[in-house]
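It would be a great kindness if you could assist me with a short task in structural biology. The matter concerns a single protein, recorded as an amino acid sequence and a row of C-alpha cells. Could you please explain, in whatever detail you think fit, how the C-alpha cells follow from the sequence? Thank you for your consideration; the sequence and its C-alpha cells are set out here:
___
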Amino acid sequence: MDTKRKGKVKLNHLAWPFSVIRGILQYKTRPFLSILLVLMLAGCGAVVGTTINTANKIEQSRDRGRLNDLVAAHLKWVKELQAKGDPMGDYLWAKANEDGMVDNPIKDPKIITQMYVDAAAKGSVDAQIRLGLKQFFAGSSTHRWDDGIVTKFNSRASIMQDGLKRIEQATQKQCWFYTPYIFPPQNKLCLTPAIAAIDPWAAFRDGYVYPKDDALRDYWKQKRDACESSPGYQEALRKCQPFGG
C-alpha cells in the first residue's frame, strides 16, 4: 500500500478526515459539461437540469460504492499489519476508530488515547506525534475567549508545554505523521504525510487556541518549513499526493 494543506496554511490531510470525504461525494461532475453546452445551444433548459441531476446521482452512487470498497480494503490492510505485529497497524486502528471509519467505533476519548499510547509503546512514531498533538490541544480546554481570540488561559500551560515537548521529541525521528487518504472519484487509497509542526504554528499565529506568541509562532514555522523541504517528507508526499494539494 502506498504511503498525501488552508489558504496560506497548507492543511494537514488530517486535511482530509474521513467525515470530510463523505462530503466530497456531493461534487458536481465535470464530464457532462460538454453535454450541458450542447443542450444549452439547443435551448433545452429543462433537459439540461434533468441530465445534470441524473449524471450527479449516477456518479455519486458510484463513488459511495467506491468509498465503501476503499474503506474495507484499508481496514483489511490495517488488520493484516496488526497480525504481523507492526505498530503501524495499531496506530491506524486507533485512528480508524477516532475518525469513525469502523462499524461501531470506540468513542471514549480515554480509550482512544490509550490505543495511541499502546501503539507508541510498540514503536509507532506516528502515534507518538498524535499523542503530542492531543496533549498540546488538551491544554487549551480551559480558557477565556474574546471575540474568537484567546486572550489568556488558565494554569494548564504545563499541559500544552508537555505536548510540545512530546511533539519535538517524536519529530526528531520523523517530522510528519501518516493519515489515511481516501478519494473515491480517483479510486485512490494511500497514506499521506501530515506535517506535525503545522498545528502549533497555526495555533500561536492565529490565537484561536492559545494566545498569540510571535516567538513560538516563528519557531514552529521554521520547523514546518524544514519538514516540508526535507527529502523524506517529499518522498512520502510523492507517493500519496492529495487531490488539489
